[in-house]
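Researcher: Before we compare anything, I want clean individual predictions. No alignment, no superposition, just each chain on its own. First chain goes here; please echo the sequence and then give the structure tokens.
Model: Echoing the first chain and its structure:
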Amino acid sequence: MSGFRQHFMLRMASDWVPRLAFCLALSACIFGDSDVALAQASTGQPQVGTGAPSVPPLDPPAERALATGTLSIGQWLLSPTLDLYTLYNSNIQSSPTIDLKSSGFHYHPALQAELDTGIYDTKLYGNVDSTLYPTQNELNTFNKQAGVYETYAPLRDLTLTTHLDYTHNTLANVVITSIPTPITSPATPPPEGAAGVVATQQTVVNPNDNYTATVTAYKEFNRAFLKLGSTIAFTQYEMASTSGTSPNYYKEVYNGQAGFWFSPILYAFADAIDTNTIPSVKFVSNAYLTRGGIGTAQISLFQAAIYYGQQGTAVDQGGGTAGGDIYGGTVFFFPTAIWNMSLSVDRLRNRSDITGSTPGASGLPGLALSASSVTSASSTQITTIAYKSDYTFSQQTSAHIVVSDSRIAFLDMSRVDNSWLASAGIKHQVRDDLSLSLDYQYTRYISEQPLTSFNRSLVTLGAHYKF
């Protein structure tokens, strides 16, 4: 392990300067001095990857509201929550060969403590996430998480954050994604409704510990933003492989996002992410994804965005390379004040000379709605069409629906796989501190390859209580 750590430190010291310069150059190249009229759009911080971007800010940054809460210890505000729900899962591991099904019970207590002085905002959090299956005890999960999220905002338009996180997972994905997704925690909650729906990938029982450190700088300009970040993560498996298929590994990640309005109704955006995966055995691999595009403000009942970019993977010591275009777009439709929907099309091409047995042939990025990962060793063209909708019945009740199809065509082969996802849910706020939810998700993977196709149904009925 000492050689592993030494290699990691040397690699990090030699690479951080060009990686950071790459992010800065990408973001700076789209900036200019723009004086545009105001338009109606939402403000948010962007995520790197495929799909629709977040819209750059239009209004001057407002003074951040201080945190509020009913429970406290000294100056610390406490936010304990409890999630309980029953479920039925027809294919717990999303496996084409092992059909394990069971009803179950899930519990998720969480606690966040926050100290907010206006300039400094400190969040400490911890939670336990466990699912129990009475008839499949070997698949019971006991996940736990703890961390600290520190925000420093010396100016209204400048925010610096540091995030340290420890997460223990009972299950591990069959294929490690080349570009990691953002860490979710009580300090950084996932989106609700249709925006938060993702397909569950195939998993195996392999408990693992993840240690992550992230630093981020976010700056707002005149109807523009710039965000730069870097992450170091270490994953250690209970059953680590020495063959290179599931070794312990470091990841070092560098990312940047930017956008600005160049007319009253049009904005430009760009984002990029670069990841080094450094395993304890075998070869180091590098993966990147970069894109740029144009979006619109809401015009009548519609809003839209299109993008084009590149993604690629390279494995050290002659392990091979892969890469290709990414492009797509999203159209949003707002027929009423209580109903919104979107239709998106995303395409990823990957031409690869990496062999499937080469360590570093990890999963391709940007396939959140696919039921199964596709490795960078596959020469494929993946087209995903997704429809999402949110409907608000009242101030207490809302519903969402997602339907998607990912068509995975293998280049130079006649094989075509399809991944289907259908999800629907309803949420009802009983009181300010109590909400109920009912969700159903169906995934199906269809392949001509033997022992590859599978389907999965998941039904959950639960309650969320905030003390």
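Researcher: Okay. Second chain, same rules.
Model: Second chain and its structure:
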Amino acid sequence: MNDNKPSLLIINTLLNVYKDHDPKWLGLRRPGSGMTVADLHVHTQRSDGTLSLDEVPAAARRGGLDAVAVTDHDRLSSDLDAPVTTREGVTVVHGIELRVDAGHQRLDLLGYGVSPTDALVAECERIQRNRAERGAAIVDCVEERLSVSLPIEPRPGLGRPHIARAIAEVSDYDVDGAFAHLIGDDCPCYVPRAVPAFERGRALLTEACGLVGLAHPLRYDDPESALALCDTLDAVERPYPYADDPDLSAVDRAIERHDLLVTGGSDAHDDRLGLAGLDSAQWERVRDALDVSPE
């Protein structure tokens, strides 16, 4: 017996452990594509994530990643002093996810390689004031409806996931139930936010970012209309951990029609980075567009 060969028992054990898991939960793309090396959709405590910025590199390495983009909701990272930096051997792209109003639906734009402008900073500050006011209104509604006191205070960066977690602490609702019955769209305690129009949001990001793309296009009520707006964008998010296995043909048509770069990411709000993202070839194209030299 060749002792250098792995034991068949070990191999079979590993296969039995992982055979029922979706590849994206193992940090891999689907069969036939490469390993995920870049997760370009990650949230931190600056908005509604659980990771601090200092914890992102270690989480990235656990996910087998070379690069991440920090894309907090409507908020810039004050601790990222360049469009792209390296932290503990991990490339960190300064990004932002900006909610915009496209008329009959609201969309999320992803800006990558941020060099903050006065206009974008001012708009983010306005949005954060509105977020705090909106958060206070949602909290008041939930507390009155459930006759509870939520362990949360309105603040910049406050989002509905924060409120949902607070509801789960003091009620019979879990986080999903809080969204489904209390604070989700069209629920009794939902309060809409004041967001910029699509054209204004796109212009603000175009001025401040190296790349601007559409986030998770198949999550919207009207994906085709959302994808049609990509004619004024640089990129679209294709790899994404949708709940089902959607038909991506409309996304692929938009990529070809508008000559878009492919971005992708896990939309991580916890420490599980790399559940979706770009393989090395895809990341290289984005990296080149951001004019980032490989380490």
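Researcher: What stands out in the second chain?
Model: The first strand starts at residue 38 and ends at 42. Additionally, Strands lie at 38-42, 67-70, 84-87, 90-101, 106-112, 211-214, 235-237, 261-263.
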